[in-house]
Amino acid sequence: MLHYCRERFMTKHFTVTAILVTKDTPKKVLLGFHRKLGAWLPPGGHIELDETPIEAVIRETREEAGLDISSYLPINTLDERVTSSPTPAYFFEETIPRYGKDPEHIHLDFVYVINGFPETVLTVQTDEMKDMHWFTKEQIFDDPENFPTYPNLREKILRDIFA
Fold it and tell me: Do the beta carbons of residue 92 and residue 111 sit within 8 Å?
């Protein structure tokens, strides 16, 4: 798909994001330090060909955090031809700047918030994520200069979650 922006067409990529929120007090969210982007971000990534957003967010969370979130995203069969999938909490259209040989493009991001997830011990390190931890509101908001993340994540999603 193409999106007309700044007097030229830009490619659109469909992506997913999983915001995992603990069931315990204090509430915590799972974020990983993205090597290439230099920011704390939740698990997520591109939807592959012939993959649904739900399948993609389950796969990405398994690949990046080693966690199975499938039971938190139930798919219901309505009849022999129709299923009902969970609705994302947010849907963002994000302009992604040029990076190396990758041109500027658009991400159409399905963001799923999963509340009540058990705070699991993580030992995952991937090519994409350098580190992954559960963070409290204070850890994220008390020193924003030393906690790099994207403004839409900090100022919209995380503010809503910790409100």
Answer: yes
